Amino acid sequence: MASQIVREWAGINTFAPATQTKLLELLGKLKQENVNTLTILVMGKGGVGKSSTVNSIIGERAVSISAFQSEGPRPVMVSRSRAGFTLNVIDTPGIIEGGYVNDQALEIIKRFLLNKTIDVLIYVDRLDVYRVDNLDRLVVKAITDSFGKGIWNKALVVLTHAQLSPPDGFPYEEFFTKRSEALLKVIRHGAGLKKDDSQASSIPVILAENSGRCNKNGSDEKILPNGTAWIPYLVQTVTEVVLNGCKSIYVDKKLIEGPDPNQRGKLLIPLIFALQFFLVMKPIERAIKKDIAKESRPSWETRDVSAGNRKF
Ligand code: GDP
Ligand code: MG
Q: What are the C-alpha distances in Å from 117 to residues 40, 93, 230?
């Protein structure tokens, strides 16, 4: 495997001291649970703030952001280490183009992830979007088809652009709840999860404000309109997902290629022959043998024989 440059996580020093303390505490907690490496995969539509969220978590401009969706076609993995702990964050380009999933872009992402383990999936979308549509469902379905339903056990949703005043005088929390519910419903649909599936209802939804204009509290931490310091809260939720007892997703060849439908058909051929032999041919053969054994001599034969025996 190509060696990956792991740099010291210097960006952590750019956070407010209160945020730094919380982050180091969380890393300590992970190390206590023998988690020394953490790989986060970031996915979502283009322009929703994936790259900005990666930079916010790392604390530096590690990946490029763009207001005009001119993302590079390839995923980028940012690796940082701190006190023996390695954090990998994989930023991906949006996979929707012209209203459809761009299969080639998806393929590139899958190849990039080969032989990597996804500990957490961050699904990014915007808070300030008032409806969900079929595109959301397509992205969720593409993720599910690529990595399996189990990936949603390791997922959390991040809603960016969280510093907003909801329209029509909606209270902030109520707006957030409605937006989360609508998106989780789409995730349930797109991932083919059942309505009462605990998997879907337990996906955490976190708010983020990546803009430099984000409000700050007295301790200089970036806060949301509801007062939450969102960076440590996001990392705390990532930690909870890591330690939630569900398995991380190891991306192997089999997972990304899946069984070849043609091969699958071919494998069935001998089975069909065997079934045909035992269920159709054998019973027919048995029936014929039984018939032969049971059959009394035909009357013409008997008549002939008896006729032959008659002496005229
Ligand atoms: P990506 O295509 O999903 O990677 O999105 P980017 O991170 O490149 O962001 C697209 C645009 O949205 C850029 O102009 C960002 O500055 C802006 N942006 C991203 N997140 C936020 C956010 O939380 N708040 C605001 N106001 N702008 C954001
Ligand atoms: Mg991007």
A: 9, 19, 26
Write down the pTM of the prediction: 0.82
**Per residue, what are the HEC states of the chain?**
CCCCCCEECHHHHHCCHHHHHHHHHHHHHHHHCCCCEEEEEEEECCCCCHHHHHHHHHCCCCCCCCCCCCCCCCCEEEEEEECCEEEEEEECCCCEECCEECHHHHHHHHHHHCCCEECEEEEEEECCCCCCCHHHHHHHHHHHHHHCHHHHHHEEEEEECCCCCCHHHCCHHHHHHHHHHHHHHHHHHHCCCCCCCHHHHCCCEEECCCCCCCCECCCCCEECCCCCEHHHHHHHHHHHHHCCCCCCEECCHHHHHCCCHHHHHHHHHHHHHHHHHHHHHHHHHHHHHHHHHHCCCCHHHHHHHHHHHCCC
The answer to whether the CB of 159 falls within 8 A of the CB of 206 is yes
Structure tokens at 285: 């053969």
d(CA 75, CA 107): 11
pLDDT along the chain (312 residues), means of 10: 75 95 94 96 94 96 79 86 94 90 92 97 94 90 94 96 92 95 91 70 92 94 95 97 95 78 62 79 83 68 51 44
Shortest-distance atom of ligand 1 to CA 46: 2
Residue 302 to residue 42: CA distance in whole angstroms: 89
* CB-based contacts of 73, cutoff 8 Å, min separation 6: 93, 105, 108
**Among all chains, which residue has been given the structure tokens 């949603």?**
152
Ligand 1 touching residue 116 (CB < 6 A): no
Query: Who surrounds ion ligand 2 at CB < 5 A?
Result: 50-51, 71
Query: What ligand is nearest to the CA atom of residue 55?
Result: 1
Distance 106 CA to ligand 2 centre (A): 14
